[in-house]
Amino acid sequence: MQLDSKIPSGPIEKKWDNRRFELKLVNPANKRKYKVLVVGTGLAGGSAAATLGELGYQVEAFTFHDSPRRAHSIAAQGGINAAKNYKGDGDSVFRLFYDTVKGGDFRAREANVYRLAQVSVNIIDQCVAQGVPFAREYGGYLDNRSFGGAQVSRTFYARGQTGQQLLIGCYQALERQVKAGTVKMRTRKEMLDVVVVDGEAKGIITRDLVTGQIERHYGDAVVLATGGYGNVFYLSTNAMNCNVTAAFRAYRRGAAFANPCYTQIHPTCIPVSGDYQSKLTLMSESLRNDGRIWVPKKAGDKRAASDIPESERDYYLERKYPSFGNLSPRDIASRAAKEVCDEGRGVGPGGLGVYLDFADSIRRLGEDTIRARYGNLFQMYEKITGENPYRVPMRIYPAVHYTMGGLWVDYNLMTTIPGLYAIGEANFSDHGANRLGASALMQGLADGYFVLPYTIGDYLATQKPGAVGVDHAAFAEAENEVRARTERLLSVNGSRTVDSFHRELGKLIWDHCGMARTADGLRDALQKIPALREEFYGDVRVPGSGAALNQELEKAGRVADFMEFGELMCLDALTREESAGGHFRSEHQTEDGEAQRDDENYCHVAAWEYTGYGQKPNEHREPLVFENVKLAVRSYK
Amino acid sequence: MQDMRLKLHIWRQAGPEAQGALRTYEVTANEHMSFLEMLDVLNQDLIEKGEEPVAFEHDCREGICGTCNMVIDGRPHGPQKGTTACQLHMRAFKDGDEIHVEPWRATAFPIIKDLVVDRAPFDRIIASGGFVSVNTGAAQDANEIPVPKADADDAFSYAACIGCGACVAACKNASAMLFTAAKFAHLEKLPQGRVESERRALAMVEQHDAEGFGACTNQYECEAVCPKEISVTSIAMLNKAYRSAVLKTRETV
Ligand SMILES: Cc1cc2nc3c(=O)[nH]c(=O)nc-3n(C[C@H](O)[C@H](O)[C@H](O)COP(=O)(O)OP(=O)(O)OC[C@H]3O[C@@H](n4cnc5c(N)ncnc54)[C@H](O)[C@@H]3O)c2cc1C
Ligand code: FES
Fold this sequence. Notes:
heterodimer; A: alpha+beta; Methane Monooxygenase Hydroxylase, Chain G, domain 1; five-stranded antiparallel sheet; 17 helices; 14% strand; B: alpha+beta; Ubiquitin-like (UB roll); Fumarate Reductase Iron-sulfur Protein, Chain B, domain 2; two-stranded antiparallel sheet; 7 strands; 38% helix; elongated; binds flavin-adenine dinucleotide; binds FE2/S2 (inorganic) cluster
């Protein structure tokens, strides 16, 4: 396997222009002869499918949801970055580029990040033209807020529902193309394999979730926009149905998987309240502006928060990071919370929680001011916990939130399988080892609206449209494999539910490949995961049949893939003998407990090549070269 | 943590053509669970007993994706105002309660299985005109047209619709006017959307009717159950634009 990143020549600010000029074009009259399959209709896939349709390609778009509007992108709260510099506070394309590279702990590809910053401005224009109701100032112009890791205000938002509004805009553009006949929307279809013909992606196999039909679909190119894999942890802030299956099936067919160990843990989520817990809820990072984080000084202190006097509280972030205090970056705040809980000082049932206390702010600013700033978040918290955060401190704990790793792609967003593209959270390209807030929405829409629709033409121009049909042997083979896998899951008829396995796997990954990782822990996980997988295939119970709607079967297929994927994550984490961003190896830290990178040996992307079930995959390395940003210790102290 | 013993009467229907019926189950829950987590517990029990779990749809479990949809004790999304089924917690119930759980009922939303219905008509209503006709790359600078903050805020409050379909389930005519009008009003409040106002009104109302949704007779049950509390003022806006569009088409004929 060769990793050719295809970074264009020229100075960084010219690279994207140069590439657009070099790309082969498909003549407008020929575009309709080409069929592109887009799997996933969240921000990335929805925007790509709509734009490809507008350009005149024949598009088929797939989602397992009942409508494109349900994609997980809908849940994004905070906002979307763009280097508009509407505030005149010194923002620029270069600054957004710089912040993103630094925020990613110098583990992203410079050229991709620069392009992302460049097209960020077009995204806002596009969305406003579509009618996305962004927040505005009284003068009628767009409002901005600040986010972590930046010293300028460049985040556009629509109350706490930015993802929803962007997705609705994108969904409407997509439905407009459906009506125009350029896009065929295939809802409730789950992609279960990529079909590779003579080394190139030429189709997919899906299961219709209502009828159970296994179906073949041909495309001259295939785009995966299938989101992130945070649910390998079982509990995360991701929607319940997010999964790794599409990306993992592509990996099994030869697409390299890059940096699977780079996962992001968000420090402010509502803690787990019991064994039945099904998912975790994010509380916006903005709360840390006015809330103070603390735990009791004494381990095992079970008193109510109000009964613990000031002198017996430990405001540990303020103590350890006097200059950033409660606003320390996500990874640092998360690890610090874990540490105090590991010491037995956590609060709430189970001891996995810390206080986020607004009492001081309420005293200083008054309850009304706090209500105006965070009213909806306080309400959401109360709905879930039944506790009133104006009276008692909130309890929060870190939770898995985003996955920086994903399918390896070159500058044109093509995976190592020619004709197979990956966009949005499903690829690895722009966030390095840590993503900054409000940058995922930006990346998904950059990929879908402004990058892929152009780069894909370069590949299509070399293809004869419709050259292979669904009766090709490769389709039959892939279909048979999908059938066999489905039947296998249904036939085990063991004693344990799919969820019980998923929960067990998630706990293993959380304990050993979560906020802090050690070689011993990872080795332990690498022993236990294959054993759990064997037990799964020997003892899982999937009721019902494959010939109708069967939600347990859907889950079983996804958990089966997580069982293999979890092993890959741990292997990647074990191999990367450094700490970088969201990947913290306890062996590699500075004296004061900060992440310690090893630029000499690990300044690269690790891209894994599948070699067979249960076999150790091959590691390929793409060196990262920094020509425009100086490699430096990422300090926020 | 206090256990709650509950009796559930849940609609079970094997498939679109099958005969459905309410079946009774017992489940032990506690007040910290969400309503859907309580159903998860029931489903785990059922699977362990060798029965088929209850099919129901959900995804975000935080009230934003609009996937969850069930009528709880006769009310879409259950007893709490401004709350989706997935945001409902068991502390709204008490030990010994009997709870009825049924699917959305509307001719335009056929049942697929148990509590799962087909809401594809909503996508087709949007496709008929619920968009601004602008291609990618054709936009001018975002700050070129200032939009009064009040209009932007209003547009947002209509755009907050999550497309769950509770409005249809609550309406005795199974009308989807609140859904349709929320989209219309969102775009109507913005200069970018207003350009296509009449064409949009005509197309969306026609599609609404063609899908088999009933007529709106101003009962406003929809607004009362809407988890996003979308206002029926949107319906008045749509009606007005629709009437004027109809008049104009008549004049040109
Ligand atoms: C709670 C929360 C808050 C967030 N807030 C922010 C924020 O404020 N700002 C920000 O920038 N980012 C935020 N993020 C991150 C951001 O929302 C996501 O990274 C982004 O939306 C992912 O978009 P996507 O299009 O790549 O994938 P998704 O939106 O996850 O879409 C995936 C699509 O793929 C489909 N799919 C997947 N697998 C298959 C298959 N096998 N077959 C068929 N279809 C399939 C799904 O149906 C869906 O349509 C947040 C994330 C969370 C969890
Ligand atoms: S599951 Fe998303 S709104 Fe209820």
